[in-house]
Design brief:
- The protein is mainly alpha-helical and 107 residues long.
- It has two domains: 2-43, no CATH class; 50-99, no CATH class.
- Helix content is 45%, strand content 9%.
- It contains four helices and two strands; from the N terminus they run αββααα.
- It has helices at 2-11, 53-66, 74-89, 92-99; strands at residues 18-22, 39-43.
- Strands 1-2 form a two-stranded parallel ribbon.
- α2 (53-66) crosses α3.
- The longest helix has 16 residues, at 74-89.
- The protein is globular, with a radius of gyration of 17 Å.
- The two termini are 28 Å apart.
- The mean pLDDT is 85.
């Protein structure tokens, strides 16, 4: 997570500040986590899938790409998950439609 935050910090425009919304995963708030000065972490409340657009992504992948599947091996699971993710990630319109929140405004 620390390396990920460093990469995000490099992409933030000089003089700007990034707000990164995170869920309750332990590594998002580890005590040893060094958060760069130009990033603030905002932790979502527990059990708030309506606030976390990634929950829509997982639900979409489960129901449209991974449901009713029989996997032959662990490697097969990884390959099918990767295929599902790549299908999703390569379609910006699908990403936007699934993760959009009407109540969020960006200026």
């Amino acid at each position: 997570m620390g390396l990920h935050l460093e990469e995000i910090a490099k992409a933030v425009a000089p003089g700007a500040h990034a707000l990164l919304i995170v869920d309750g995963a332990g590594w998002h708030g580890a005590k040893a986590l060094d958060v760069p000065d130009n990033i603030t972490l905002l932790k979502l409340p527990p059990y708030a899938p309506g606030l976390n657009p990634m929950e829509n992504v997982w639900a979409y992948l489960r129901s449209n790409k991974l449901a009713i599947s029989v996997f032959d091996s662990y490697s097969d699971i990884l390959n099918k998950c990767q295929d599902a993710w790549n299908f999703f990630a390569n379609d910006p319109n699908r990403i936007s439609s699934i993760t959009h929140r009407d109540w969020i405004t960006v200026n």
